[in-house]
């Protein structure tokens, strides 16, 4: 393992966590401004919403590119270039003359923001392994998971005294801050002797090798499928809480925030228990918790139960995501010392892809029933457990002298 005794662990986790929040802030901060953007460009809601889709596509595609680049050229250089591009793209969004260019700039903004997500995780793998990686990753998630909670609130705050243009200018300021922190505070954690050749065919081969690693794929899919359940939760609860149960937007925000807190609780639980309980046990516990919670949620939706009866199992389901994501990441990354960027890229992009497939399922029966949400959560829980047992538990542990030698470099 690379020596890290000169690093302030909490400060490093805070900095890398801020890079992780760049994705949620880029996605969510401008959501309250949708009506104003539509009015500015005299366009319909669908085109404004497509700017969000473009950003998500950029975030997904960018991780597949930025991860290998950081394996080939180190972590700092791609991060510095990406943050500079993010600043430019954010300003371009602010002054886009029409909705078409805004959509294009949103894609490039998401693409550049993806570097913060994937490279921050690769840096964590450079510095830590085993239980230490689990503990550090839980700290990173403690900061990163605040992004989805804070971004819409921050966007509303900016919109209270300026227009939607101010939201993108604020994002550019965030980019300036992260560029400066990369330049003057972040040290290189991927030295030249550990880098891979910058060869496109080699990078494709590297992805192929990762996808042939059954355990890695098992952890990746188990994490990705469970995270897809969160996308279903995010897509379904605004309609369920407000249309079916009739809560106000303020109450909805409180309920949404409470489940964000449960995500943080789950991730921190893993960080605290990692040295006493194996990550494998914690991951499996999270998967079983998700199954029980999803069964309870489905029963409540079928019985048209009261709001509190639905909120409780959803709280525990989201908590299980915090557990499984935090436990699966170090397990998947443990044997990827020399391909940390590529591995982190796959771990980051798969949840976006699966979430895009799963999220629409919650609306197949209309906005007046919560049953599709319960079925979707139960389905993701069952498939994640099956995936784990088929791809992970059936593969015997292999000796890893070479891995250990890599970690001790």
Q: Shape from CA axes?
A: globular
* SS elements, strand count: 0
> How many H/I helices?
16
CATH architectural category of the largest domain: Up-down Bundle
Poorly predicted runs are 1-7, 398-409
Whole-number count of domains:
2
Q: Helicity level, as a percent range?
A: over 70%
Averaging pLDDT over every residue, what do you get? 83
Distance between the termini: 6 Å
User: From the helix content, strand content and strand pairing, which structural class follows?
Assistant: mainly alpha
Helices and strands, in N-to-C order? HHHHHHHHHHHHHHHH
- Compute the gyration radius: what is it? 21 Å
**CATH topology grouping of the largest domain:** Growth Hormone, Chain: A
Tell me the fraction of residues in β-strands, as a range. under 5%
CATH class of the largest domain: Mainly Alpha
Largest sheet: none
InterPro entries: Efflux_drug-R_Bcr/CmlA, MFS, MFS_dom, MFS_trans_sf, Sugar_transporter_CS
Family: Belongs to the major facilitator superfamily. Bcr/CmlA family.
Protein name: Bcr/CflA family efflux transporter
Keywords: Cell membrane, Membrane, Transmembrane, Transmembrane helix, Transport
Overview of the structural elements:
By secondary structure, the chain is an all-alpha fold. It folds into two domains: 9-198, Up-down Bundle (Growth Hormone, Chain: A); 212-407, MFS general substrate transporter like domains (Growth Hormone, Chain: A). The protein has helices at residues 9-28, 34-41, 45-73, 76-94, 99-127, 130-144, 147-159, 164-184, 200-212, 214-244, 249-273, 279-302, 307-333, 340-358, 371-393, 401-407. Helix 11 (249-273) runs parallel beside helix 13. It is globular. Mean pLDDT is 83; it is low at 1-7 and 398-409. It is a multi-pass membrane protein. InterPro entries: Efflux_drug-R_Bcr/CmlA, MFS, MFS_dom, MFS_trans_sf, Sugar_transporter_CS. Its main location: membrane.
């Amino acid at each position: 393992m690379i020596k890290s005794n000169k690093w302030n662990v909490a400060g490093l986790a805070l900095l890398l966590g801020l890079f992780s929040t760049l994705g949620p802030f880029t996605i969510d901060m401008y959501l309250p401004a949708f009506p104003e953007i539509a009015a500015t460009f005299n366009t319909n809601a669908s085109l404004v919403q497509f700017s969000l889709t473009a950003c998500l596509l950029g975030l997904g595609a960018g991780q597949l590119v930025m991860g290998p680049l950081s394996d080939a050229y180190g972590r700092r250089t791609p991060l510095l270039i990406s943050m500079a591009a993010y600043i430019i793209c954010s300003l371009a969004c602010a002054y886009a003359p029409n909705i078409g260019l805004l959509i294009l700039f949103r894609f490039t903004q998401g693409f550049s923001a993806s570097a913060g997500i994937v490279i921050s995780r690769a840096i964590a793998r450079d510095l830590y392994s085993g239980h230490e990686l689990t503990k550090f990753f839980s700290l990173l998630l403690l900061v990163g998971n605040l992004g989805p909670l804070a971004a819409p609130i921050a966007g509303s705050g900016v919109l209270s005294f300026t227009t939607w243009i101010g939201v993108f200018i604020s994002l550019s300021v965030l980019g300036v801050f992260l560029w400066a922190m990369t330049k003057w505070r972040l040290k290189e954690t991927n030295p030249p002797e550990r880098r891979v050749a910058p060869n496109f065919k080699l990078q494709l081969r590297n992805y192929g090798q990762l996808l042939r690693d059954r355990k890695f794929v098992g952890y990746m899919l188990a994490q990705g499928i469970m995270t897809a359940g969160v996308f279903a939760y995010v897509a379904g609860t605004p309609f369920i809480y407000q249309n079916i149960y009739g809560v106000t937007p303020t109450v909805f925000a409180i309920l949404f925030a409470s489940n964000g807190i449960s995500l943080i609780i789950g991730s921190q639980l893993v960080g605290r228990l990692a040295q006493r309980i194996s990550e494998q046990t914690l991951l499996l516990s999270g998967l079983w918790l998700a199954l029980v919670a999803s069964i309870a949620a489905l029963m409540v939706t079928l019985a048209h139960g009261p709001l509190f009866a639905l909120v409780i199992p959803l709280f525990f389901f989201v908590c299980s995501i915090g557990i499984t994501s935090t436990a699966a990441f170090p397990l998947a990354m443990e044997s990827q010392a020399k391909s940390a960027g590529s591995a982190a890229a796959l771990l980051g992009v798969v949840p976006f892809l699966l979430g895009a497939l799963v999220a629409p399922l919650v609306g197949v029966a209309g906005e007046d029933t919560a049953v599709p949400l319960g079925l979707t959560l139960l389905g993701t829980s069952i498939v994640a457990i099956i995936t784990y047992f088929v791809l992970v538990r059936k593969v015997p542990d292999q000796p890893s002298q070479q891995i250990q030698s890599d970690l001790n470099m």
